[in-house]
Amino acid sequence: MSGTAQVTELSVARRRLAVDSIGIWVLAIVIGTIFGFTAREGGLSLIETAAFSSILFAGAAQFAAVGLIAVAAPWGSIVLLVWLLNARHFLYAASIAPHTTHLPRKIRAGLAYLLTDEAFALTSAHIARLGRFDLAGGWYAGFSIFVPWNLATIAGWLAGAALPEPGTIGLDVMFPASMAGLAVGLVRDRAALIALITGGAAAVAAAILINPSAAAMIGGLVGPLVGIALTRREGEAR
To answer: Which long-range contacts link 188-192 to residues 24+ away (Cβ below 8 Å)?
Structure first.
């Protein structure tokens, strides 16, 4: 492929990445605002709330942790729950890592810090389009959720009582609906489809048999594990 063709391909891929991220910005603003409101209702100060979003930076885990803090749960159980909810991020990193081996460790650490569910979806799709990792695209995918999420968290806390209860206007379904949409968008082969179906079934079963909080943790672990296992098996078969 000529240099001009490569530049054109990269420009097209980056434009698509920017378009795909629009929904992520909207999602981050809406859900981040709800988290800020929820954290305030749970008794967290503005500084504590901002620290949650900038340091922990994991939507489902943040909501779960604030819920446990509000009922004075032991810190050990809070830390364990957060770790379990975020364990799926190890799988995300394992999927992206082979494409970033040429990068310095500090750069990879920064990208890993920003690798949320949404950033993984955007980055994976961007890699699939290009057939390689684009550093600028990777940074953009990460910051496209980090920046609006943190700004919206602060706005939600400051708005406080002025916001209606999220469930009364249907905002409580935004997070699971958006995650479902991102997951469907990642399906490009048999392994990904089976991973989606398996993870979704596991999440539904966990929500019914255990509780809704366990759904993200169990579904988020089972689906990627199945997908990785199938991908490796298919690779060995070739």
So the answer is: 188/128, 190/230, 190/234, 191/227, 191/230, 191/231, 191/234, 192/227
Whether 182 is in a domain gets the answer no
Three-state secondary-structure class, residue 58: coil
8 Å CB contact between 32 and 153: yes
Q: Tell me what percent of the residues of the chain surpass a pLDDT of 70.
A: 79
Distance between CA 144 and CA 97 in Å, rounded? 20
In a domain, 114, yes or no: yes
Q: Do 144 and 222 have their domain in common?
A: no
User: What distance lies between CA 22 and its chain's CA centroid?
Assistant: 15
- In terms of domains, do 111 and 199 share one? no
Q: CA-CA distance, 64 to 26, in Å (whole number)?
A: 22
Q: What is the largest CA-CA distance in the chain?
A: 61
Number of domains present in the structure of the chain: 2
Residue 179 domain-assigned?
A: no
What single-letter DSSP state applies at residue 116?
-
Q: Is the dihedral of CA 210, 212, 216, 222 positive or negative?
A: positive
Could you read off the pLDDT of 44-71 as tens digits, one per residue?
A: 999 999 999 999 998 878 887 887 787 7
pTM value?
A: 0.71
